[in-house]
Design brief:
It is built from 4 helices and no strands. The protein is an all-alpha fold and 142 residues long. The protein has a single domain (2-141), classed as Formiminotetrahydrofolate cyclodeaminase monomer, up-and-down helical bundle (Four Helix Bundle (Hemerythrin (Met), subunit A)), CATH 1.20.120.680. It is elongated. The two termini are 23 Å apart.
Length: 142
């Protein structure tokens, strides 16, 4: 439960962090295309904007593993909470992934963008599979 509380606090902080990271990006998009330094500004802003949903993705993956413990060790009356949790976490994982992608799509440093996309793809594949397995396990025990 302590770990779950720390995750909750970290995820809540991501709400503020996301707004903070998006504001400079929205301003950078309004710079004239021929403005000096625009490409460097855009690249930094895109990386910063992608970093928050990437953090959310990592935290959601940790939370999926935590839900496995809750499903395995929790009271029979409470295991439905683990199933509900992983169902919502699957949505959070997919939402975070698409929000990383929207930023990597516009990055000029393709090596950096493709590496980040690869990490995202791996986490989405692994943890949506885990989430489905936990959900199905709980469903079949009810």
């Amino acid at each position: 439960m302590d770990e779950a509380e720390k995750l909750r606090e970290a995820l809540l902080q991501c709400i503020e962090d996301d707004a903070t990271a998006f504001e400079p990006l929205s301003k950078a998009y309004s710079l004239p295309k021929d403005a000096e330094g625009r490409d460097e500004i855009m690249e930094k802003c895109l990386r910063d904007a992608a970093s928050v949903p990437f953090k959310i993705l990592k935290l959601a993956c940790i939370a999926v593993d935590l839900q496995r413990d809750f499903a395995d060790k929790g009271s029979t009356l409470m295991i439905s909470d683990a199933a509900t949790g992983v169902a919502m976490l699957e949505g959070a994982i997919k939402g975070a992934a698409v929000n990383v992608r929207i930023n990597t799509k516009s990055m000029k440093d393709r090596e950096y963008a493709e590496n980040l996309d690869r990490q995202v793809d791996e986490m989405v594949e692994e943890y949506t599979t885990k989430a489905k397995a936990i959900y199905d396990d709980v469903w079949n025990r009810l």
